[in-house]
Amino acid sequence: MNSGSFLIKKDFFGEEKISEIRKTALELEINKSNVHANGKYAGIQWHKIDLDPKTHTFMQDIYDFLGADQSGVCVFYYLSPGAVLHAHRDLTGASSNARIRFHIPIITNDNVFFNVSKKRVVMSADELWALDTSYLHEVKNESNETRVHIVIECNINESVKAKLPQKDIRGKIHDIYFFMILALNLLKSIIINIWKDPKYFMDQMRMLKKFVAWRFLGKKKVE
C-alpha cells in the first residue's frame, strides 16, 4: 500500500451514474475558474468548478457514504493536457491536521501520472480514493484530454476515520517530520522572501492568516 493514498471503494457510482456525472462535468467546464487566481501558480492550467451537494446530489452520496461533514473543498478539478502540478505537500488535507482529501476520477487515462511519496498511484474512473496531502504528491497530464476529478476535503471524524487504514508508528513519525518541514519552510519564507520577494511573502502570510482563522477560530474558509 502506497503511503499517503488509499483506495476506499471501486465502482462507487456505477456505470450509468458515472456517465451522467461525466456529462455534467463537461457541461459545467465552460464556467471553470483557476484554482490559483494569483501568485506563482496562477499560470498552471488547473481549474475548478465549485459544487453544492444540495444541487449536485451525487456529492451528497459521497458525504453520506463517508459520514463526513461539509467543511471544505467540494469541486470538480480540471487538469488540462500538458499541465503539471509539481511535487508538494499541503496542510489543509493533512491527516496530522485532522483533515483528509478524497478523489473520484471522472475522466482520466493511462497517460495521467499521479505520484504519491514518489510512487505512481493509478486512480481509475469511479474509484473513491483518500489522499493524505501531507505526503509528497504530484500530477502530470501527458495526455491530450483534460483530466477531471471529483474532490472533497473534510475533517477526520470517527466515521471517516473508520474508512481509513489505522495510523501505525510510521504514520506518527511522518506527522512529526511533516510539522518539522512546515516550520523550516515558514522560517525560510520569512528569511528569504521578506526581502527577495515581499509580495509573495505577503501572499503567504495572508494565506496563513486565513488558514488559522478557518481551522482554529471557526471562521468560514475562503478558497
In summary, what is this structure?
The protein is of the alpha+beta class. It has helices spanning 15-28, 57-66, 158-163, 169-196, 198-215, and strands spanning 5-9, 33-34, 46-50, 74-79, 84-88, 99-107, 112-116, 119-121, 128-131, 137-141, 147-155. The protein has a 7-stranded antiparallel sheet with strand order 1-9-6-11-4-3-2.
Biggest beta sheet attributes: 7 strands, antiparallel
Number of strands: 11
Poorly predicted residue ranges: none
What's the order of the H and E elements? EHEEHEEEEEEEEHHH
Tell me the helix content. 25-40%
Number of helices: 5
Helix-strand makeup class: alpha+beta
- In whole angstroms, the N-to-C terminal distance is 31 Å
Shape type: globular
Query: Mean pLDDT, as a whole number?
Result: 88
Please indicate the percent range of residues in DSSP E strands (runs of 2 or more): 25-35%
The whole-angstrom Rg is 17 Å
**Spatial order of the strands in the main sheet?**
1-9-6-11-4-3-2
Q: What's the oligomerization state? A: single chain
Please give a handful of descriptors for the protein shown.
223 residues, alpha+beta, seven-stranded antiparallel beta sheet, four-stranded antiparallel beta sheet, 5 helices, globular
Layout: helices, strands, pairs:
Blueprint lengths: L4 E5 L5 H14 L4 E2 L11 E5 L6 H10 L7 E6 L4 E5 L10 E9 L4 E5 L2 E3 L6 E4 L5 E5 L5 E9 L2 H6 L5 H28 L1 H18 L8
Antiparallel strand pairs: 1-9, 2-3, 3-4, 4-11, 5-10, 6-9, 6-11, 7-8, 7-10
